[in-house]
Amino acid sequence: MKKVEYMNYITSYKERDLMVLDNDSWLIEVGDHVIQKKTSEGTESLSEIEMAIYCFWVLDYSVRNSGSLEEIEDIYPQAVNQLIDIFQKNKWRSSTFLALAELDRNAFCRNYYAEFDQICNELRAAY
């Protein structure tokens, strides 16, 4: 097998593998890739969708580990605002729900799990 064919096979295998992952696993896997890229190449190296994935990963980490958005302040304080901006710019449906994070953080956290799959699906479709 030629190198180009092999690389195309590997790429398509990875894409197929990511498609069968549930959204929780997808966010962990792709989030890890984005975090590694951010760490090695800097925030500026991230594409808009990678930045959205990173911001959502930060938000998800905070909600799942503390039940609130307080941990965002320690990890990446701009996460909520940047994520909202990207979702609004792309006219994605979840932008309205994400805006709730700025207005009423408790209501946002209470409803987070009900909206999680929709947010992930929009990110996955763009990635």
Structure in words:
With 127 residues, the protein is mostly helical. The chain has helices spanning 3-19, 23-41, 48-66, 72-75, 79-89, 95-103, 105-126. Helix 2 (23-41) packs across helix 3 (48-66), helix 2 packs across helix 7 and helix 3 runs antiparallel to helix 7. The longest helix is centred in the C-terminal third of the chain and has 22 residues, at 105-126. The protein starts with a helix and ends with a helix.
Q: Give the terminus-to-terminus CA distance.
A: 28 Å
How would you sum up the major sheet? none
Strand content: under 5%
Unreliably modeled segments: none
Shape: globular
Output the helix-strand order: HHHHHHH
- What do the pLDDT scores average to? 89
By helix and strand content, what is the structural category?
Answer: mainly alpha
Count of helices? 7
What's the Cα radius of gyration? Answer: 16 Å
Percent range for helical residues?
Answer: over 70%
Q: How many DSSP-defined strands? A: 0
What would you say about this model in short?
This protein has 127 residues and is mainly alpha-helical.
Could you give the topology of this structure?
Blueprint: H1 3-19, H2 23-41, H3 48-66, H4 72-75, H5 79-89, H6 95-103, H7 105-126
Helix pairs in contact: 2-3, 2-7, 3-5, 3-7, 5-6, 6-7
